[in-house]
Amino acid sequence: MEYNFLKTNCSDAVCTLTISAPKSLNALNSNLLKELDDFLDHLDAGTRVLIITGDGEKAFVAGADISEMQNLTEPEGVAFGKLGAQVFRKIETLPIPVIAAVNGFALGGGCELALACDIRIASNRAKFGQPEVGLGIIPGFSGTYRLTKIVGMGNAKEMIYTGRAIKADEALRIGLVNAVYEPEQLMEEARSLAARILKNAPIAVRYAKQCINEEYDLPADEAIAYENTMFGKCFATKDQKAGMTAFLTKSEAHFTNE
């Protein structure tokens, strides 16, 4: 499929996806979300890490497209919110790690896109916020759910109730991002992070993500039992034998994803 709003660069098991609608600061409209959905459905099977960023220096994603939302009816609003929520859930549940490299404004839907990723790193020019209440709506792409999970209820309520945008250093302080870099370092650091992930057994990384996602809302006993099952499954892989043999022989492990 030809994409009008996405740029892709995939090599060496790492795929970089750039949201590209610079005239609107990469705002999310229905067509862009549908392209993103299609991209995720057709992501190359050899990809082991996905990096998502925004085109240009000003914005990661400045939000959802207000010009599209302005005259929506209630059922149309539900449908638009469901589209975004379903696409972001697909990102969250991809079997591979997803890194958000936030290079500028990540507001509304842009903040929610970053929240759906596994790891968020930011430029020191980045700003995060959920300004929806100032527009007469609430976060609609699962922001009330994920923001609370990531930064805690008090921080999430303050951000959402006030609509206040926070700078990268405050995002780091409350745990919204993992690290902050100079703008010119951001993508290099994202690729470096991806490279560190690639050194490890791909099946183990997939199982670890699956455990973290599945166990988060489970009672403790169920979560621990689930982890134990997945831990056992690792011992059925060739990668486990390769990794432990390499450790014991003080050699470099060569993982085959088997």
Describe it for me?
The protein is globular. Strand 1 and strand 2 form a beta hairpin. The two termini are 31 Å apart. It has helices at 30-41, 66-69, 74-92, 109-116, 143-151, 153-162, 168-173, 186-198, 202-215, 220-234, 238-248, and strands at 6-11, 14-19, 49-54, 59-61, 98-102, 105-107, 119-123, 127-129, 166-167, 179-181. The chain has a six-stranded mixed sheet, sandwiched between helices. Strands 4-6-8-9 form a four-stranded mixed sheet. 47% of the residues lie in helices and 16% in strands. The protein is built from eleven helices and ten strands. It has 258 residues and is an alpha/beta fold. Helix 1 (30-41) packs parallel to helix 3, helix 4 crosses helix 5 and helix 5 crosses helix 6.
Write the layout of secondary structure elements.
Layout lengths: L5 E6 L2 E6 L10 H12 L7 E6 L4 E3 L4 H4 L4 H19 L5 E5 L2 E3 L1 H8 L2 E5 L3 E3 L13 H9 L1 H10 L3 E2 H6 L5 E3 L4 H13 L3 H14 L4 H15 L3 H11 L10
Parallel strand pairs: 2-3, 3-5, 4-6, 5-7, 6-8, 7-10
Antiparallel strand pairs: 1-2, 8-9
Low-confidence runs (pLDDT<50, min 5 residues)?
A: none
Spatial gap, N to C terminus: 31 Å
Radius of gyration: 19 Å
Task: Tell me what portion of residues adopts beta-strand conformation.
Answer: 15-25%
What is the residue-averaged pLDDT? 97
Shape: globular
In sequence order, what are the helices and strands, one letter per element? EEHEEHHEEHEEHHEHEHHHH
- Outline the biggest β-sheet: 6 strands, mixed
Structural class: alpha/beta
**Percent helix range:** 40-55%
User: What is the number of beta strands?
Assistant: 10
Largest sheet: spatial strand order: 1-2-3-5-7-10
**Number of DSSP helical runs:** 11
